[in-house]
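Quick log. Single chain, no ligands specified.
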Amino acid sequence: TLMQWVGYGLTDMTFCLIAFAAFSLAAWRIMGLARGWGAIGGIAAAGFFYRPTGVVLLPALVWAAWLAGERRSGMGVRTVIVAFLATCVCVTGLFAWLMQDPARWPFEMLRGTFTAVAADYDLGEVVSARLTTYHEPPVALTDFMLISADRFVHFFAPVTADFSGRHALVELAFFIPCYTLAAWLLVRLWRGGGAFEDRQKKVFAFAAGTVLLCFAFSLGVS
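-> predicted structure:
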């Protein structure tokens, strides 16, 4: 069930359906329960044009296609988990470095986007329009890194200080079981427990990669 907290229609709900459909079909493809990538690519392309967030679907499907075609058995789950966390740290630090001076971006493409996002960083913005999350305007690189790190925290945070009690209760009712189960799964995978097949582990790796891509996108769209 998805609850909408505004009094007018948004495309968020339907985009969730598109993104979930693309993810589910790609997971089936990795598991060997479906064939071909045409329909999956079509859905991802629709998401790309439907909302800006849809840009993450295309590299996510490239990752899924690589996993589906990867023939080695016994994926190193610990390696995937450590690589995921290390990549999050590196992406956060690199983005902060670019936000301190967007002219460091070496290509003409996306230069305007980085400049616009840097203007939000200069305000100390963490979550758009939620002033309680803002930092003091950054000066040193460490200030920019703290903003990026805070964006990482708020990417996973189910509530903020200015949520109403009812809003926070609904959020926690979903996210507490969700995060608890995710943590339990990570522990089991880390310890090597559970009778997970290689293809199932690949789906977990696909999910982790998709989350990482969404997080990287959120650094620039608070």
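The helical segments are 12-31, 38-50, 57-69, 77-100, 111-122, 141-156, 165-191, 198-220.
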